[in-house]
Design goal:
GO terms for molecular function: phosphatase activity. Keywords: Hydrolase. InterPro entries: Bact_Sigma-Reg (IPR052016), PPM-type-like_dom_sf (IPR036457), PPM-type_phosphatase-like_dom (IPR001932). This is PPM-type phosphatase domain-containing protein. By secondary structure, the chain is of the alpha+beta class. The chain has a single domain, classed as PPM-type phosphatase domain (Phosphatase 2c, domain 1, 4-Layer Sandwich), CATH 3.60.40. Helices cover 29% and strands 29% of the residues. The protein has a five-stranded antiparallel sheet with strand order 1-10-9-6-7, with helices on one face. The protein has a five-stranded antiparallel sheet with strand order 2-3-4-5-8, covered by helices on one side. The radius of gyration is 16 Å and the shape is globular.
């Protein structure tokens, strides 16, 4: 987890997680870059200690690669660095990573097989899914990933969850609609994270549940 709040004027950022076991194979992260800030949510296939060790290694490599590479290049470097470990354990990693330019809200993202990131509008009346056709890290040797662009407008909320949240719903879009509704009654990013995790706490889930929220001030 990040060691300290982002503390960037105009943005409210929070995250949290509920592991299925004593440790989690999910992680979330944020840190500043020279021209903005980066947020990440990743999910290592599997649960328990092995997944947690892989997640810790991936987080460290991605932090180091992100400062000196484009977002897509950083993921390629992570994939190359983690290839032996992922092959040995038969694991793969879904990941959503985004870079935001604070002044404009311009958002660049790479989604490696994750598919669980949405932007909720300022009135919480609609949500748009941030889509990609790219595969998880470790699914295919020497794979590549493409970056995509969007804008986080004033008052909008970027919400990313891990797939453990899908245990709570019959259909994936039901999770999106619930997130939209919760966003409308949550005063802060941390409130929304807490509401999401509270839903998980009242159900029997078999996978880690993690949430990351970025809210831009109106």
């Amino acid at each position: 987890m990040p060691r300290r709040p982002l503390g960037l004027e105009g943005y409210d950022v929070a995250g949290g997680g509920a592991p299925a076991r004593s440790v989690s194979g999910d992680f979330y992260d944020w840190h500043e870059l020279p021209d903005g800030f980066q947020v990440v949510l990743a999910d290592v296939m599997g649960k328990g200690l092995t997944a947690a060790i892989l997640a810790a290694g991936l987080r460290a490599v991605l932090r180091g690669a992100s400062r000196y590479n484009t977002l897509a290049q950083a993921l390629r470097r992570v994939a190359a660095s983690m290839a032996d470990d992922l092959n040995e354990t038969g694991a793969f990693v879904t990941i959503f990573a985004a870079r935001l330019t604070p002044e404009t809200g311009a958002l660049e993202y790479v989604d490696a097989g994750h598919g669980l990131a949405v932007i909720i509008d300022a009135t919480a009346s609609s949500a748009r899914l941030l889509t990609s056709e790219d595969l998880p890290i470790g699914a295919v040797d020497d794979d590549t990933w493409e970056s995509h662009e969007d804008v986080l407008a004033p008052g909008e909320t970027l919400a990313v969850v891990s797939d453990g949240i899908l245990d709570l719903f019959d259909e994936p879009w039901d999770a999106v609609e619930t997130g939209r509704e919760l966003s409308g009654v949550s005063a802060t990013a941390q409130d929304l994270v807490d509401e999401i995790l509270a839903r998980a706490a009242h159900h029997v889930v078999t996978d880690d549940v993690t949430a990351l929220v970025v809210r831009r001030d109106r």
